[in-house]
Amino acid sequence: MVRTADVVVIGGGIHGCSTALHLALRGLKPILIEKDYAGRHASGVNAGGVRQLARDLQEIPLSISSMDIWECIEALVGDDCGFEAHGTVLVAESEAELAGFRERVDDLNLRGFGHEELIDAAELRRLVPAVSDRCPGGVVSRRDGAADPFRTTQAFRRRAVEKGAEVVEGVTVTGLFRSGANWRVETSAGVFEAPKVVNAAGAWADRIAAMLGEPVPLAVVAPMLMVTSRLPAFIKPVVILRGRKLSFKQLGNGTVVIGGGHLATPWRDSNETVLDWQKLAVSARTVWELFPAMHAATVVRAWAGIEAYMPDGIPVVGRSSTSEGVFHQFGFSTHGFQLGPGTGAVMAELVATGSTNTPIDGLGIERFLKK
Amino acid sequence: MTAAADLASSYELVVIGGGPAGLAAASLAARAGVSTALFDENPGVGGQIYRAITSTPVKDRAVLGEDYWDGAALADEAKASGALIVNGATVWSLDRQRLVGVSIGGKARVIEAGRVIIATGSQERPFPIPGWTLPGVMTVGAAQTVLKAQGLVVCERTVLAGSGPLLWLLAAQTLRAGGKIDAILDTTPRRNWLQAAVHLPDFALSPYFAKGLALLREVRARVPVHRVDRIEAVGADRVREVVFSSAGGTRRLPVDLLLLHQGVVPNVNLANAAGVTHVWNDRQLCFVPVLDADFGSSVPGIAVAGDGAGIAGGTAAAERGRIAAIAAVRALKPDAVVPDTQAIRQRLQREEMGRAFLDWLNRPADGFRMPEGETIACRCEEVTAQQVRETARMGCEGPNQMKAFLRCGMGPCQGRLCGLTVTELIAEERKATPDEVGYYRLRPPVKPITLAELASLPISEAERKAVER
Amino acid sequence: MFKRLAEKGPAIAITVDGKTVNAHAGDTVAAALLAAGIDHCRTTPVTGAPRAPYCLMGVCFDCLVTVDGVGSRQGCLIPVREGMKVETQLGRREAGR
Ligand SMILES: Cc1cc2nc3c(=O)[nH]c(=O)nc-3n(C[C@H](O)[C@@H](O)[C@H](O)COP(=O)(O)OP(=O)(O)OC[C@H]3O[C@@H](n4cnc5c(N)ncnc54)[C@H](O)[C@@H]3O)c2cc1C
Ligand SMILES: Cc1cc2nc3c(=O)[nH]c(=O)nc-3n(C[C@H](O)[C@H](O)[C@H](O)COP(=O)(O)OP(=O)(O)OC[C@H]3O[C@@H](n4cnc5c(N)ncnc54)[C@H](O)[C@@H]3O)c2cc1C
Ligand code: FES
After folding, report:
1. How far is residue C53's CA from residue C62's CA, in Å, rounded to a whole number?
2. Are residues A255 and A283 in the same domain?
3. Which residues of B fall within a CB distance of 8 Å from A45?
């Protein structure tokens, strides 16, 4: 039996779930197909950083529209998603680094973006008293914060279902074929048909694109995180570094999540990752130097998530270049959690109306296709 | 004492765990000329059954019994074999590339292994009754450990509760050591005898039959035994009373110490984190690794031997260790001389004969595995059975999703004392099998390490170059 | 709760929350606390409930104590050493201090 819908969304990460919800809110009937369960991959295991800070110019519009949603997330999905906004602080470790940050902030201001703000040593110390005192300043984005990634993805999934979407889990999309006005979506559990398809398959999205004759240079990466036992509260904002790879935040329950982009080895066919302890040790040493309060913390768990990385570090969002009715939404290059709410809204608008006012021109898949 | 810095960067074989399985495996491999390192996190070798075999202050051999002293030969043999044996060495990570993360004396190393034998043994099955987190409530195994290793024997008012051979053994050892036990609360469901009875002929042939009967007789002669269906530990700051009931009514006893035990289950954390496939074993009511005839796991080069491969007891553990070691030696050094596995397999078979009887007899009742209401399921994060059940009813399908809702399994014990409970509770609520529900996906470090330990990992060549550049 | 079979033994002095406790060679920190009749060693970070060693084999993590300044160590796996400073973790989170 062939099951039909208005849109088939492939992938139950934050992006697929958000798009499904926004499609349903527009009165369409989407079916979301997920090979494992919603939030099993990057969207459920990421660091939860909701940051506008330090984004590529091309994604700032999506980031800002997402931020507007994050700030009233409970109204949209019926769950506060654990979102708390204590800002993100990019710490400069030297005067030279701070000078570079100043240029970036000035440039953003000229372009009319005011979310990044340069701060001096005194303000840095006020925001992050625990940071080591040799740091001369940094940049803050005050509306930023962090949320609980699995809870967020599940909340989007749940609300999408409440609004009329259907979510099929444990089912893998294996083929995409044109069938009259429809797309015929073959899966491990039968066939689905819909006039529109959204490819939100995360680190597997290149395989879907390949089915459409659009090979993309997607790299499968696995950023690592580790979390400590509970510590007394000592830091509110999320802290990130530029020169050395570090992102650092304390959750409400006292545990501290340490990340920053060191990579594990991914095995995307078996959903496995193998951690690189040498690199986690580098993070441990960086934390050690920067945060004396952490000197005897214990690491209780480390893990990695499987994620898509594009050569230019920004996602693919927009129409397929070969296949009418298919849309891409993948390649979030280790910072797509924050982008989920807004990108889903933009994608639903694009699918439903054929266009969007949010500028996403620089994010099309054409940029990777050989002329 | 071997320090972290003294370790080589790689060994042909790394054995994790120094109980009978690990000791037997390491000695066999080392004698066959394989460079072998054995890591055990305890201060001495012996594992659970032969805990402190080289250092126990209990000199009267009758107290712990002759089966205990059998361990001395294994420990001597391992010491003489040339294997590097490191105690106080906690393995906190193992992956499919066979990199072994180990901490010794506050310093960490990651070393390479040509082959790995996981011999991390068993742990006592969670026993989630009301009040089981109160000070003064411990496991039977805990009392046995301090008896063997430190010569501490229970005194004051002590009650043992549960089922399984270890409970009766510790009771006998305690009595022989001059300790007193006020009562034993036997939780073995009566109908277990029916299921077990068909396996009695096999068990009657096993060496455990006569020993088991003698133990029961020895203990029953001196301790009152009550059959019970429900147990509760009561007290505010510590346990003061144990309340128990059966068809005959409810009774209470004042206690200083309540010792719980309902069998042992494989210690799956390290194997699970290394990616080894596990399946549910319905007879033993636990997850066991999927293994081939040589105890090789689903991950190439990694074997699981001993009770970690499914519970079969200490003697079987040693034989399993030997079989796994022979396979490792054959893979590493095809020309090495190794013992014939045929004879070992026969001995192993004899050991495993009576297992079905013991498993069916000692299968804990549902009520002692799948608690209700406010009884704590996850000790670390203090999650109650009720919360797990409600979350499952709301649609949460597995333990990994449950973590995100309740944080169960996310504390320092990493699910060791709630994993089976949570799986079975979800299965019961969702009318699914434990296999369908699955187990926690465990993440390294399988034992927490301090940030200082992690920071102490020797700096790799690549990193040093990056800094110098 | 427990008594020693052999009262004599090579004595090792440690301090627990500043008070001297006489342990024996071969004791782990958790065993020394039990032998000294100290029956809880920490409170939980979630509700503040008291906890004491439960398994003594390294699986339950209820024996967590601070040893020589390093927090949340498994008392049942660490042998005592002369002069060792042990602090119970009562009334605070699993602080790494
Ligand atoms: C508390 C307890 C007491 C027991 N007492 C008896 C008894 O008296 N008689 C009896 O017949 N059976 C007893 N058993 C049953 C036990 O399972 C035996 O059958 C036997 O000890 C199993 O041997 P093994 O080699 O498989 O593992 P074990 O003997 O359990 O040895 C495993 C070893 O691995 C070490 N280890 C575990 N994880 C790590 C890690 N990550 N890093 C480094 N080392 C690690 C442990 O410290 C341990 O020493 C007991 C079980 C338990 C849990
Ligand atoms: C460790 C880590 C930390 C991170 N930290 C942050 C952070 O702090 N802030 C931030 O903004 N971002 C962060 N990110 C990035 C962020 O998590 C991702 O960019 C984002 O979650 C991507 O969402 P997605 O929906 O595109 O992909 P995914 O979450 O990977 O979802 C894609 C889904 O598609 C499914 N799928 C694939 N192929 C098929 C198929 N053929 N059929 C059916 N289903 C299929 C997969 O099973 C998967 O569930 C982090 C990522 C990681 C790994
Ligand atoms: S007492 Fe259980 S881990 Fe130490």
Report:
1. 5
2. yes
3. none
